[in-house]
Amino acid sequence: MKKTFLLLSLALPLVAHAQEAAPVENPTVVAPEVAPVPEVAPAPEVAPVPEVAPVPEVAPVPEVAPAPTTPETGTIPTENAPTSPAQVAPVQVAPTSPVASLDEVARTREATVAYNQGLAALKKSDWDTAAQNFGRAAAFSPGDAGALSFLGYVRLQQKRWDDALNALLAAQDSGKNLDVRAQSQLLNNIGFAHWNKDEFPAAKTAFEAALALDKDYFDARYNLAFAYLSRDQFADALPHLRLLSAQNAKDSAIWDGMAEALQQTGNLSGALGAYKKALAIEPRNSNYRFKFALALVESDRRADAIAQLKQILDTTPNNAPALLQLGDLHLKSNHWGDAATALKRYVALRATDFTGRFNLGVAYDYAAKFDDALAQYAEAEKLRPDDAATKNNVGRIYFKRDRLDEAVTKFNQALKIDPEFYDARINLAIVLAAQKNWDASSAQWQTLAATVEKRRTATTDASLKKSLAARLATAYSGLASNDLAQNKFKAAAADYKRLLVLNPGDLEARSGLGRALYQAKDFVGAEATYREILTRDPKNASAYNDLGVVLEAKKDRKGALDAYSQALQLQPDHGEAQSNVARLKSKATLG
Questions:
Q1: Where is the signal peptide (predicted)?
Q2: Are the beta carbons of 477 and 428 closer than 8 angstroms?
Q3: Could you tell me which of 48, 186, 227, 572 has the fewest CB atoms within 10 Å of its CB?
Q4: Cα–Cα distance measured from residue 157 to residue 72, given in angstroms and rounded to the nearest whole number
C-alpha cells in the first residue's frame, strides 16, 4: 500500500463570464434608422368638394416594413391626382339665405385649395407645409375624413404621435361611411400611432380591427406580427408571420422574424430553415447571419456557427459582436490561440468592454500566458471593480506562481463580493491547505458543504440537485484530504462515507475510505471496503494490492499473497505488488 497518495485532485476552476454579445440590432423591433418602415396608409376616401378632384382614396402603397415604428418617406397617393384644376360645376345657391350660401361656397373653395396644396406638399415630402394645409382644409371642413386622414398621416411622418392620433381618431369619427378598405387603412394608422406611444394593447386592438375588416391587409398583419415579436409574444406572432410569408415569400424580414419566433418557441430546426431563407434573399445581411450563428450555437453546431461568424468577418472585419462571439466559441472549443486572436481584435475596437477584456484574460490564462492574462484581468477589474470572477481568476494565477498570500487575498475579495461563489471558496480552501493552514482550510470546506446542502435541500430542480451534489462531494473530499494530512483517520473515514452516500459508484472515494480505515486500524472495515471495490471493478489491480496489505495486517499471509498475485496477474508491472510478493516469499516482515 502506498504510504502517500493524492485524494483530492482538483484543478482550480477558471470561471469565464457568459457571452454578453448581442446582435447588432434587436431582432424583434427594428429601430427607425435601420430597416424599412411601414408607409402608413392615410385611408382618405371622402374628397373635400367639387373644385378639384384630389382622389384621396388611393392609399400609399406600403413598402415592406419590419415593425410598427417611425414612418419614413414613402409613395404618396398621386396615382389619380389631377395635374390641373378640374371643371367646377355651378354651385346651387339657396335663395333664402344668399349670404350664408356665399360664405359656405367660400369655405368650400378655401378647403379645396388647402387640400390640394397639401397634396402638392406631400408629393415633395414637405411635411410642415402639408400639415399646415391639411390642417386648414380640416378647419374649413371639419367633417372631412380625407383631410383629417392625410393630416394624421403627415403627423406620423413628423413623429408627432399625439397630434397624429388625434387627427386619425377624428377621421374615424367623421368617416363612418368609408368603404371597408379605407376603414382598415385608417385603423392600421391608428394602431401605428398607438404603437409609437408605447400603447401596445391599443395598437394591437387597432391592428386586429383592421384585419377583421380586411383579412388580406398586409400592412396591418405585418405590424401586428412584429408588435407581438417586440413584446416577446412569439407564439402569437407565428401564425401571422406564416400568413405573411405566404403573401410575400421574398421578404427577408418576415423570414428573420419567423426564425426568431420559432427559435424562441423551441423549434430550432424550423428556425435554422427560416434563417437560411432570410439569408438566401439577403446574403450580405450580417445581422441575419449573426442570429443564424447564434441559433447554430444553440443547436450545438459550434463548427458551423464559427463558419458563419467568419463569413461575417470576411465582409465586415470590424464587426465587434461577431468577434466577441467567435472568441467565446473558440474558448468553449479549447482553442486558446484562436480565441485570443479574435478577442484581441475585439478589445481593439471596444477597449472599455468588460466581457472582451475578461474573456481575453481567460484565453491567455488557459494558454499559460499568465503575464498577458494578468494584464487583461487588471483592465477588467478597472472596468468592473466588484466582479468576483475576475478576482478569483487573478487569485488562481497567484496560486500557480506560488504567491499564496496574494492568492488568499484575492479569493477572500471574491467571496466578500459573492459569498456563494463556490469556485472561489474551493480555491481558497485549496490554497489554505497548501499553506498547511488546516483549520482555516477545513472551515472553508465546511462552509461550502453547509451552503450547498441547504440549497440542495431547498430545490426541486433535478439538474440543479445533481450539480449541487457534485459540489458537496468536492467539499467532503477536501475535508477528507485535510484530515488525512493531519492523521485524523477516523474523521477522514467519516468524510468519505458522506461522500459515498452522494455517489456510491465513486471508486476513488471508496479507495480513500479503505486507506483511512486501514490507518485507523479498522482492518475489518478496510477489507470490506476493498472487497466492495473489487465487486464493482474486478480488474482493479491496485484494489487487490491494497486488500493484500489489509489481509497481511490481519495475519492472513496466504490471503495476502493471493491478493498480491492477483494484482500482478492483472498488472504485471505493478511495483508495489511485486515488492509485496517478493517480501512475503522471502518471509520478510511487513515494513
A1: 1-18
A2: no
A3: 572
A4: 6
Q: Give the residue among 66, 81, 74 at the shortest CA–CA distance from 32.
A: 66
Distance in angstroms (rounded) separating the CA atoms of residues 399 and 442 = 18
Helix, strand and coil in the chain, % to nearest 5? 65, 0, 35
Residue 166: CB atoms within 10 Å: 16
**CATH class for the domain made up of 522-591:** mainly alpha
CA atoms within 13 A on the CB side of 100: 4
Cell readout for 405 is 498570500
CA distance 474 to 456: 14
Assess contact for 547 and 532: CB atoms under 8 A. no
Cell of 365: 490564462
DSSP element (H, E) containing 455: helix 438-458
pTM of the model: 0.73
Grid cell 391587409 — which residue?
A: 217
**CATH 1.25.40.10 residue ranges in the chain?**
17-76+103-231, 522-591
Q: How distant is the alpha carbon of residue 363 from its chain centre? A: 21
Sole residue written with cell 476493498 = 530
List of residues 6+ apart from 288 with CB closer than 8 A: 252, 256, 275, 278, 279, 282
Angle value at C-alpha 323, between 320 and 325, nearest 5 degrees? 110
State the residue for C-alpha cell 415569400.
249
What SS3 string covers 137-205? HHHHCCCCHHHHHHHHHHHHHCCCHHHHHHHHHHHHHHCCCCCHHHHHHHHHHHHHHHHHCCCHHHHHH
